[in-house]
Amino acid sequence: MSEKLSDLLKGLECEVYFGSDDAEISSLVYDSRKVEKGSAFVCIKGANFDGHDAALSAAQSGAAAVIAERKIEGLEGTGCVCVVTKDTRYALALMSAAWFDHPAERLKTVGITGTKGKTTTTYLVKSALEHMGKKVGLIGTIEVIIGDEHIPAKNTTPESYELQGYFKRMADAGLDTVVMEVSSQALMQHRSAGFVFDIGVFTNLSPDHIGANEHKDFDEYLMCKSMLFKQCKVGIANGDDEFFERVLEGHTCTLETYGMGEKCDLRAVSISLDKEPGHLGVSFKTKGLLTLDAKVPSPGRFSVYNALCAAAICRHFGASEDDIETALLSAHVKGRIEKVKVSDEFTLLIDYAHNAMALESLLTALKEYDPERLICLFGCGGNRAKSRRFEMGEVSGKLADLTIITSDNPRFEEPLDIIADIVTGISKTDGKYIEIPDRKEAIRYAIKNGKRGDVIVLAGKGHEDYQEIKGVKHPMDERVLIKEILEEENIKV
């Protein structure tokens, strides 16, 4: 496969300093280690390495072209074309779309952004659309799904070259739709540039991903989220969110809203909590763009928002109200308020909540169901901000009737040191707690001591199937641990 450099540069503002844009390109790369004869090497400045520093060696390794943000000295005479553009990440996105022959044009594309709800909503939408006969690919935090193939995800939104490659594989496999999570980092780094989404979605916004190598402040985080609505044809947004107007400011798409407020185009009414031993859910009706009588097998008001969002999206695919209701009732998301049956007496859930904000939202939602006891099992990852440990400990101490403090990806720290920090936070409250460092034994304790009407949540791991210790990822899936415990304890379910 080869392309003329000039074809890859179409639509990109750039200047050719050395050589000709008639050069034949054999591969498009942004990792200098992958350069081969005929490559176009795009210099990307990352957190730890600047690709511009490898530009000359790339030319010496046979690169036919270097795309950079500044003129690279020493390229003259190497036979390598030097192309200078303002933003090489944006260049990579446009060139990647061209390299794979603009595969997004062969798909209906749905991009979902927001602080919370992205993952759950993508699976809800995928389920609903497949129920009505669509062939749907998915790209997100947990995995990339192409037909029967499940590829573990490295980032919520892949780099633009990989993203366009996935689009091509989906289109070539006969899929007609892709639903994907679009992170603020991806928007800031133009990973999703090079095409226009058919539908862009905003779920909600709260302070997150602010710090070194992420966003410098909340305003930048918000601004990056808003970029999606200048890159989509139809915008669907949570009209109840306090930052709704700021995120949609300057949007170039047609817009509709969902929520519970009277001004929302699709709104939930008559919300009721569904509760029985081993099951928590929510029911609601809708007014406005759709008239639904929906049931969702996951708890909390945020489950209503996720379901409303999915319904609003599916409406644009011609889904019937029956299709949407069936899909909402049957969809499940690994590691997102995931119910694992261990008893008819109490409820056990697995969730990815791994910071104070997410844990508070989760536990607050579960308390609405008035459980006999709310039991929260969690740990905190090593080599991360200590403040997270204090905050999560304090949140669980305030909201849970019992906290089981255990280990979660200690990395290069000692698990007991991390647990001690969590205890510092929980000690600010009157909350009861127990320390069980071994996560399997902690789960065993929770199951063996569960009582009728209890709700037990295993927080922090969610979809993860490993435990990272001293730089090594050891297999550890909570679902497997639960199965082993039930067998070892001879518990029948």
Describe the structure.
With 493 residues, the chain is an alpha/beta fold. It folds into three domains: 3-99, MurE/MurF, N-terminal domain (Udp-n-acetylmuramoylalanyl-d-glutamate--2,6- Diaminopimelate Ligase, Chain: A, domain 1); 103-330, UDP-N-acetylmuramoyl-L-alanine:D-glutamate ligase; 338-488, Alpha-Beta Complex (Protein-Tyrosine Phosphatase, Chain A), CATH 3.90.190.20. 31% of the residues lie in helices and 25% in strands. It has an eleven-stranded mixed sheet with strand order 11-10-9-12-8-13-14-15-16-17-18, sandwiched between helices. A six-stranded mixed sheet has the order 19-20-24-21-22-23, sandwiched between helices. Helix 4 packs across helix 10 and helix 12 (386-399) crosses helix 13. The longest helix is centred in the middle third of the chain and has 15 residues, at 301-315. The protein is globular. The mean pLDDT is 94.
Give me some keywords for this one.
3 domains, 493 residues, globular, alpha/beta, Udp-n-acetylmuramoylalanyl-d-glutamate--2,6- Diaminopimelate Ligase, Chain: A, domain 1, 6-stranded mixed sheet, 31% helix, UDP-N-acetylmuramoyl-L-alanine:D-glutamate ligase, 11-stranded mixed sheet, Protein-Tyrosine Phosphatase, Chain A
CATH topology of the largest domain: UDP-N-acetylmuramoyl-L-alanine:D-glutamate ligase
What's the number of helices? 15
Q: Tell me the span between the first and last alpha carbons.
A: 55 Å
CATH architecture of the largest domain: 3-Layer(aba) Sandwich
| Quaternary organisation | single chain
Structural category is alpha/beta
What would you report as the Rg, rounded to the nearest angstrom?
25 Å
Strand arrangement across the biggest beta sheet = 11-10-9-12-8-13-14-15-16-17-18
User: Overall 3D geometry?
Assistant: globular
List low-pLDDT spans: none
Helix content range of the residues, please? 25-40%
Strand content: 25-35%
